[in-house]
Amino acid sequence: MGFCCVGQAGLELLTSGDVSSLASQSAGTTGVSHCTWPKQVILAERFYLPLIFVILGLLIMLQVVPGETIDPIPHQLLRKYIGYARQYVYPRLSKEAAQVLQDFYLELRKQSQRLNSSPITTRQLESLIRLTEARARLELREEATKEDAEDIVEIMKYSMLGTYSDEFGNLDFERSQHGSGMSNRSTAKRFISALNNIAERTYNNIFQFHQLRQIAKELNIQYENPWTIPNMLSMTRIGLAPVLGYLIIEEDFNIALGVFALAGLTDLLDGFIARNWANQKSALGSALDPLADKILISILYVSLTYADLIPVPLTYMIISRDVMLIAAVFYVRYRTLPTPRTLAKYFNPCYATARLKPTFISKVNTAVQLILVAASLAAPVFNYADSIYLQILWCFTAFTTAASAYSYYHYGRKTVQVIKD
């Protein structure tokens, strides 16, 4: 009661320091006891006034001088805190926290089950559990709550954006096989930023293909050139394939033998050039060269079978293997292509995503098949179509074809190398 009455006068006392003035005013106040006011004055003089000076002094002492370094948590105190938490605090997961971690782990496994992606195993789940327990231990709690688990899930998602996200911001676990993905995303950002700057300066957001290549060259962004000499030779071999088929069906074996020799020369040259000149080697060539061989051999075998120079079962075996390999190439191209997958990106020869590595037995089989084609083409010219040696070559070709098909099935992913960003 008295403390309420002294409010205004006490404020004047604390600001002016005139205690006797407050006492004289209170003595003449109506309805206030003379024995109550001196106690309030003494309280204000001995407690509130020194308290204000102490607070002001602390405020002055706590002000940070410009350039001054402070240690909000002393090193020794932090060490003791961590030591205590490690020795005495052992949090356990609550049911809600375990459910959050389980859902996130299952979602990761679902997204990672793609071709050539790093598997998500129980090691990742154990790391999530330990991080959640550490989050609870940080606050000296004996139970890891749902909020702790959600914090860890957010941290894991944020860290994965730097490792697995593609240039479009989507999580792509195939990137774990060939680096962190940071290089490709930063390159894409630089390229897009350059396009935006040019569009702002020129007031034109439409670019020709040669302009895009020039901008990429100025930014030192490597963009694979598909128009190399080996690739042109492979395309030439593909173009010669129907010509050879027509000549064989027309039974013009002399000219067909010469054109086949020319096609074989292109096959030798493209491999030699790609091995000895680094700027002529390309990921497109690693797929185009065997594709050209498969197309050439398939047409030749069908034509030679039509001319009764190669048995039908052998041709069926070779064509079946080649069709499966070509289908596998298109499948690998689809699976290694980053999202969003579009037809323009899929058929863009400059956008290489994988390099094919044929097996040793497959190389042997290709050589044997070409020898059989050459021998079969020369048979009517040199009159040895019924030779026993030609029939032995048929059997050997069938054996190497079956062995080649099995080698691709056995080694599988080892024959595909995903290109690094």
UniProtKB/TrEMBL annotation:
Family, per entry: Belongs to the CDP-alcohol phosphatidyltransferase class-I family.
Membrane topology: Multi-pass membrane protein
InterPro entries on file: CDP-alcohol_PTase-I, CDP-OH_P_trans, CDP-OH_PTrfase_TM_dom, MCM8/REC_WHD, MCM_lid, P-loop_NTPase
Enzyme class, broadest EC rank: transferase
Keyword annotations: Lipid biosynthesis, Lipid metabolism, Membrane, Mitochondrion, Mitochondrion inner membrane, Phospholipid biosynthesis, Phospholipid metabolism, Transferase, Transmembrane, Transmembrane helix
UniProt-recorded name of the protein: Cardiolipin synthase (CMP-forming)
Gene that produces this protein: MCM8
High-level lineage: Eukaryota, Metazoa, Chordata, Craniata, Vertebrata
Localization of this protein: Mitochondrion inner membrane
GO annotation terms (biological process): cardiolipin biosynthetic process
Record field: catalytic activity: a CDP-1,2-diacyl-sn-glycerol + a 1,2-diacyl-sn-glycero-3-phospho-(1'-sn-glycerol) = a cardiolipin + CMP + H(+)
Domain MCM8/REC winged helix stretches: 172-225
